[in-house]
């Protein structure tokens, strides 16, 4: 037996494999072990997606599999779909909680032609023109692939592009430069809108002094979309096992042995797609490689026609503003407003009312007439941010048949489709794909001061606030 890595036997394994446990709102991946069988967060999406699709129940006993995927969000399901559809491989998906429990059931549904937190002008600055153009071709192809999946699922898709609103005058020059780069270098029809045009055609955001509109962008009901992925995958023979957290792995006679509370799953190849919910100690190749960052979201009650008119809401096109700690928002198809932004640093603090108050205040600044509107849903989730702000889909150690796809930095609704597809291709040894791109040819970078990251995050939040609002 070659014991490359060993199970963390200090972690107490849950005794049984219950199907649904209470949702834990204070879950924190940096300090908590993986959950087990937790119910969904109380999101608007969960309330309106309909009955969850069938799954295959918790893993019972020891199991052998060719390919195992850990995590059943957009990424894991997209990988499973590609494996089944393009390679005839029926993967086994292990999910700690309920199917599609993580960020995939909690996000803003803003499908952008992007990935990671860097703008295209920053790609050029970091890697040069040639790489930036090849990266653009890859992300663009991924966006088209995602749209082809969206077209197959009834998920309230709202095309119309994406608006970047300048929340201060000084941000207009930044947006104008980005629009020019999008147009002149990458050939997109990105356009600047004056404040008057923005108000006339889209939205009367009282902070916005103008905006950039990019035509690529589709708002979706993320959970309906994910349930669509899940149904399609299972129809192709994929098995999805909720309430089956992976607690650790080791190499055992040439296979990867994954420890779950109810048995060992032995696989020839394994992919981790556990997003911002990656607990420390489960996969040493991932420890300290992802910064889990809490993001908040709220949805109001349905606004009346008169309220929408008074607020100047004329479009369902989705919007982000130019703050580093940005607000994202949109008018949902049923007439509610959704808005989100940053949240607590730690899970233990996630329920503090000041985080919801930050969203309410953000909404009121943008739409004063909505200051006292009733909030019908409020929730949060852990976003996977990489230490260099860009994702990775890779095999970090060529000696181990263990792969991962991570680090979308709050931009994973669309890109996770391509990431999952590339993850599957990578596991199957496919040539010809653009593996020499920076998001594919290196592992996630670590962080020198990993144990103190939250301290640094707190200081950064203060600095960003100062820069966003005052300087
Ligand atoms: C509030 C909020 C708003 C957002 N808004 C947007 C947006 O508008 N647009 C956008 O592009 N992106 C947005 N995002 C980010 C987007 O949701 C994510 O990038 C995307 O859903 C990531 O999908 P994933 O499959 O990689 O990870 P997740 O959906 O997080 O799935 C990971 C899964 O792995 C499981 N897991 C973890 N550990 C284990 C283990 N040890 N064993 C088994 N299973 C495990 C978890 O339970 C979880 O279900 C938002 C995120 C949040 C939280």
UniProtKB/TrEMBL annotation:
Its EC number is 1.4.3.-. SUPFAM superfamilies: FAD/NAD(P)-binding domain. Gene3D superfamilies: D-Amino Acid Oxidase, subunit A, domain 2, FAD/NAD(P)-binding domain. Transmembrane segments: none annotated. GO terms for cellular component: cytoplasm. It comes from Achromobacter piechaudii. This is Gamma-glutamylputrescine oxidoreductase. Keywords: Oxidoreductase. It comes from the Bacteria. GO terms for molecular function: oxidoreductase activity. It holds the Pfam family DAO. Signal peptide: none annotated. InterPro entries: FAD-dep_OxRdtase (IPR006076), FAD/NAD-bd_sf (IPR036188).
């Amino acid at each position: 037996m070659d014991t490359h890595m060993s199970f963390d036997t200090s972690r107490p394994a849950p005794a049984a494999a219950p199907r649904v446990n209470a949702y834990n709102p204070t879950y924190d991946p940096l300090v908590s072990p993986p959950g087990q069988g937790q119910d969904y967060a109380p999101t608007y999406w969960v309330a309106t997606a309909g009955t969850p699709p069938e799954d295959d129940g918790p893993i019972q006993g020891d199991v052998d599999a060719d390919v195992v995927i850990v995590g059943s969000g957009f990424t894991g399901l997209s990988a499973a779909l590609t494996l089944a559809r393009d390679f005839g491989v029926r993967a086994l998906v292990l999910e700690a909680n309920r199917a599609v429990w993580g960020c995939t059931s909690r996000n803003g549904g803003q499908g952008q032609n992007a990935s990671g937190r860097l703008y295209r002008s920053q790609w050029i600055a970091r890697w040069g023109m040639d790489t930036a153009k090849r990266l653009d071709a890859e992300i663009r192809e991924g966006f088209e692939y995602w749209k082809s999946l969206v077209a197959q699922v009834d998920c309230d898709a709202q095309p119309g592009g994406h608006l970047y609103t300048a929340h201060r005058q000084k941000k207009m020059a930044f947006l104008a430069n980005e629009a020019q780069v999008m147009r002149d270098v990458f050939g997109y029809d990105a356009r600047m809108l004056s404040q008057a045009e923005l108000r006339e055609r889209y939205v009367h955001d009282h902070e916005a002094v103008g905006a950039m509109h990019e035509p690529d962008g589709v708002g979706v009901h993320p959970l309906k979309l994910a349930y669509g992925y899940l149904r399609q995958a299972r129809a192709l023979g994929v098995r999805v096992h909720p309430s089956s957290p992976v607690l650790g792995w080791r190499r055992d006679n040439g296979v990867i042995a994954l420890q779950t509370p109810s048995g060992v799953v032995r696989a020839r190849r394994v992919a981790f797609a556990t997003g911002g919910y990656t607990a420390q100690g489960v996969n040493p190749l991932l420890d300290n490689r992802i910064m889990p960052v809490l993001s908040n979201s709220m949805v109001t009650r349905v606004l009346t026609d008169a309220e929408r008119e008074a607020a100047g809401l004329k479009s369902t096109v989705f919007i982000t503003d130019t703050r580093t700690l940005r607000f994202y928002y949109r008018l949902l198809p049923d007439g509610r407003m959704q808005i989100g932004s940053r949240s607590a640093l730690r899970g233990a603090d996630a329920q503090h009312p000041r985080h919801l108050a930050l969203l309410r205040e953000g909404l009121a600044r943008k739409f004063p007439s909505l200051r006292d509107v009733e909030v019908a849903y409020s929730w949060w989730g852990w976003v996977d941010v990489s230490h260099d702000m860009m994702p990775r889909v890779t095999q970090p150690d060529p000696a181990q048949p263990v792969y991962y796809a991570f680090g979308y930095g709050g931009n994973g609704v669309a890109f996770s489709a391509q990431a999952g597809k590339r993850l599957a291709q990578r596991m199957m040894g496919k040539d010809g794909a653009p593996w020499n791109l920076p998001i594919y040819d290196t592992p996630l970078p670590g962080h020198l001061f990993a144990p103190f990251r939250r301290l640094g995050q707190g200081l950064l939040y203060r600095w960003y606030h100062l820069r966003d609002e005052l300087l």
